[in-house]
Amino acid sequence: MNKDLANVCQYLTQGVYVIAVKDQQREHAFTAAWVMQVSFNPPMLAFSINPQHYSYQILKAGGQCSINVLAKEQLPIATHFGDSNIRDKMTAYSWQLAPSGVPVLKVALAYFDCVVSHSMPAGDHEIMLCQVLDAKILHVGVPMQYADTGNMDGANDLYA
Asked: What are phi and psi of 44, to 5 degrees?
């Protein structure tokens, strides 16, 4: 693989998000950069998730999530939710409920309240296609871009 791939991927214009998931008993959240709009009618978003992560189990069981848009200056939040060694990530920040009942990060710029429509395997991840039930701007600001995170996710080591 091209040793520059990790650096070149930083040029993809993608934001940074905290995706909160819930089922009947559990709530969890993780940082994601691989999120995109895929349909106007119905409004749909897609994101990629590692099936080995704890959040994946909850998402598959509950079938709903919120996609929370982070601001450029919220790198500590992205780092916190990107750390897979923290089991109870939800207690470090304040949450409110979206209309569907899924948690929404109060300090996020905006959120999308979603229900999973279907999924498909994609290499070492799974792509989740979600219908947007509701969306709201919470704060005005500049969204964080993946390039703003440096090597927070360790991608440089994964492309070696």
From this structure: -140, 145
CATH code, domain with 46: 2.30.110.10
Q: What's the number of domains the chain is made of?
A: 1
Tell me if 160 is assigned to some domain.
no
Instruction: Tell me what pLDDT residue 65 has.
Output: 98
Residue 25 lies in a domain: yes
96-109 confidence digits (pLDDT tens): 999 999 999 999 99
How wide is the angle at C-alpha 113 spanned by C-alphas 122 and 90, nearest 5°? 85
Q: pTM higher than 0.90 for the full model?
A: no
Task: Give the mean model confidence (pLDDT) for residues 128-152.
Answer: 86
23 part of a folded domain: yes
Residue 134 near residue 49 (C-beta atoms within 8 A): no
- Residue 56: which domain range? 5-153
